[in-house]
Specification:
Layout: E1 26-35, E2 51-57, E3 60-69, H1 71-93, H2 99-102, H3 115-120, E4 134-135, E5 139-140, E6 144-145, H4 150-153, E7 154-162, E8 169-179, E9 184-192, H5 196-208, E10 222-232, H6 239-247, H7 256-268, E11 278-279, H8 282-294, H9 299-320, E12 330-331
Parallel strand pairs: 4-12
Antiparallel strand pairs: 1-9, 1-10, 2-3, 3-6, 5-9, 7-8, 10-11
């Protein structure tokens, strides 16, 4: 039985404790990421945007160039926001955190015992330890592609040097290639073997994260529109499929939840275990989103998040060796 009534449509898909061995319980969150400022998605020194050639839509094989928001560009800001929110709530509510959790940071000082580490994964950087063990992630991202073509949403912006004394503009320093505001990147985030508290806290993190891409000090504002949720014993849809389906349909800007529900119902017939698949209806989605926004984490809630993580870390440490001379590996 679920502890939070607003999660009842997904009852049976949560773990009471974080398991060492992942189960098949899977929850997929379908998100439309919308730029609200000029945004840069790049990984190369050439300063060019990441792009990919894809079909125009699910029923139109015509090749078109689309901008790419790589999985790493989605995971990193949400990873940082997750632990930032956790520590901020703990501080505000008087929850005492271990020093290791207080000092946990990417990428070379992960504590492997906080809520962020046990969800997003963590690699041990210790040396000379026989019980080094790593945590396999239970949250998965994949590259998100723009619905609009690259030509529609890319723009070159020149920035100049200004002399502080004279306030005169000197020679142009450089040119950056940007994604324009109001570009859309459909994305599917997959959560596996999670607790109710983890889903609630991740959804709040998703709503709170607003800065993505490079140069976020001056640009990169985005919002995440949560358009659908499916749960079962498998992943039912990919980010690419979600993109191509939306690209072939009208009305998704005005009513993304209804259109996304229609898409998920189509993919139910392609699932290997459709009998286990739950697809939230528009009414259930709207009620869940409102409940998550209205939900105020209590001290007990934050303590449960931390306790789940600590128990997992203790079990993993015991299995990995616990001082008995056994060398542990990656746990799944």
């Amino acid at each position: 039985m679920v502890k939070y009534s607003f999660l009842s449509p997904l009852e049976g898909l949560f773990e009471a404790e974080i398991p060492l061995l992942q189960s098949a319980k899977t929850i997929q969150i379908l998100v439309i990421r919308q730029t609200h400022d000029y945004t840069i998605f790049r990984t190369e020194d050439t300063r060019e945007l990441n792009v990919a050639t894809l079909p125009k839509s699910i029923d139109n094989p015509e090749a078109v160039l689309k901008a790419v928001m790589l999985a790493s560009k989605q995971k990193a800001p949400e990873n940082r926001m997750y632990i930032r929110l956790y520590r901020s709530y703990a501080n505000a509510l008087g929850v005492e955190l271990e020093d290791a959790v207080k000092n946990c940071r990417l990428k070379d000082n992960l504590c492997r015992r906080c809520p962020r580490c046990v969800l997003f994964g963590a690699v041990s950087t210790e040396t000379g330890q026989e019980n080094r063990w790593n945590i396999k992630h239970r949250i998965e991202y994949s590259s998100a592609y723009s619905i609009e073509s690259y030509d529609e949403i890319s723009e070159l912006i020149t920035f100049n040097a200004v002399d502080i004394a004279t306030q005169s503009t000197g020679q142009a320093l450089n040119v950056t290639e940007n994604i324009r505001p109001i570009a859309h990147f459909p994305s599917v985030v997959t959560l596996k073997s999670i607790t109710e508290e983890e889903l609630i806290f991740y959804l709040k993190t998703l709503m709170a994260t607003k800065s993505y891409g490079a140069e976020t000090r001056v640009k990169g504002d985005m919002i995440n529109v949560i358009a659908g949720i499916a749960g079962g014993f498998e992943e039912v849809i990919t980010s690419l499929e979600y993109n191509l389906e939306l690209s072939s349909r009208s009305g998704w800007i005005e009513d993304p939840i209804t259109v996304t529900e229609e898409i998920l119902k189509k993919y139910r017939s392609l699932a290997s275990m459709p009998d286990q698949l739950r697809i939230l209806s528009k009414k259930e989605m709207e009620e869940l989103i409102k409940a998550i926004r209205d939900f105020t984490p209590s001290k007990d809630f934050i303590e449960r998040l931390g306790e789940h993580a600590r128990k997992f870390a203790e079990k993993a440490d015991e299995v990995a060796g616990g001082g008995k001379g056994k060398r542990g590996g990656r746990r799944s």
